[in-house]
Amino acid sequence: MSKKTKRIIGIIISLAIVAALCGGAVGIQYIFQFGGERSREIWTGLDEFKLDYCQSIEMRAGAEDFRVLQITDIQMNFSRKTDNAAFDLIEKLVDETKPDLIIMTGDNVAGLINGMNARRLVKFMDSLGVKYAPVLGNHDGEGLWNSEVIGDIFAGGINSLFKKGPGNIRGVGNYVINVTKDGEVVYSLIAMDSNRYRDYPEDMSGYVTYNGSGYDCIYPDQIAWYEWVVKGLNRVCEREVDNLVFMHIPLVQYIDLLSGWDLGKDGPMNGNNLGLFEDGLYRDGIGSGRVDTGMFAKALELGCTRAFVSGHEHTNNFIAVYKGSGIYLEYGTKTGRNSYSDADMQGGTLITIKSGEPYPIFKIIYESSL
Q1: Angle, to 10 degrees, between the axis of helix 114-127 and the axis of helix 147-155?
Q2: How confident is the model at residue 24 (pLDDT cuts 50, 70, 90)?
């Protein structure tokens, strides 16, 4: 074999290895993924709830509202062109909305070098000079660094409010931020990790995504923690405290809500009276978990959650009230062109909380309007 032939074979093998690494991040992570430590915080339902368990952010002096900018599914993957375009879009959204807080509803980073992407994202977010609160999505911990490491990176941001939360319940990033006015809690923002993937029974094959595996869900121990938080806030504040719940993967109720609407239409078609569609577009499927673990029922029972705010689907950004529940189901507007997207559905969502009002005001901000 000539030296030239050997060189060509070597190049082909090298390219094959690189292609396998870049295209097979999901499989490779199980072989040699860098893992971080589980949070050492321990929670039990017997713990006494205290306000200092939560982080807080004060409303601006003299302000009657609190502005939350929701951005979602940035999916930074070390593509300089699309990553920088996403940064430019976020800067425009911040200039336009002047938020008090930015909440990032998952899939913030993606790809094999997700840890490096997370560090770059944190550096950028810190440069904005606005407090921000990430929620993890199914892709954040999918590369060489697992969700624990990504959580540590997010928690290390100068302006980040991210907390990994209790280490003895499911997820990385179950935590609470209270909005205060003159030191008194006026609203609560609850972040929950909707986890990543799970295997489902074969008899649910009509609902899963691929090969018996589907998107994950909120687990009973997380629901118990959520109940403890809501009841604790109500007890300490001596009144019902309204809240929003932020997660990445939507609840199974989103499927029920849209079961009678035509996919691919810009809005509800052939409505089934299961929900009141208020704004936004419905172009994608619903990639929720396939088991109703009782999260929505618990929220309905407690009566303080006004909306579930999610990401995950890149071409859905609708806002609708589920049945007669008085609870909004919302999809954020995709931020940036990494992964699949529609050019006319780029932007963010401004969520305005008014002092004394239980329901927030949702406003979709499209890139084309900036």
Answers
A1: 20
A2: very low
